[in-house]
Amino acid sequence: MIRGDGYGKKIGFPTVNLETAMKEFPPEGIYSGVVMLNNLEYRVGIVVGPGKKIEAHLMGYNGDAYGKQVSLQINKFLREYKKFDTEEELKEQIKKDLKQC
Fold it and tell me: CA 52 to CA 54: how far, in whole Å?
């Protein structure tokens, strides 16, 4: 896990930023999946962004995940990655995406 810029937390959707050794990198987009953290499984909304950046919002997790081992499984493609004109539009779309997860 790597430290991000804290933007997800700022807008109410904290994420873990993941380093990966994947050889086959998924296309940019929004996905649903699961994460194993501290021997517990969490449903996650996943962003595969530009520059092969992967972030996951763990639903129901409120702790600090820095320094912990995280195992990610991508299950389903939800939509293409896109930039939003306003923060409000982004937050509304994130809520819709998480409902699908």
Answer: 6
In a domain, 12, yes or no: yes
Q: What is the pTM of this model?
A: 0.85
pLDDT tens, position by position, 2-27: 566 667 767 778 888 887 767 788 89
Other C-beta atoms closer than 10 Å to the C-beta of 44 total 26
CA distances from 99 to 45, 59, 92, 93 (A): 9, 10, 11, 10
Report which residue type is found at 63.
Answer: G
At 22 the three-state DSSP class reads coil
Identify whether 2 is part of a domain: no
Number of domains observed in the structure of the chain: 1
Q: Cα(87)–Cα(64) distance, rounded to whole angstroms?
A: 24
Give the separation between CA 10 and CA 29, rounded to whole angstroms. Answer: 21
Structural domain for 28, as ranges: 7-100
The amino acid at residue 53 is K
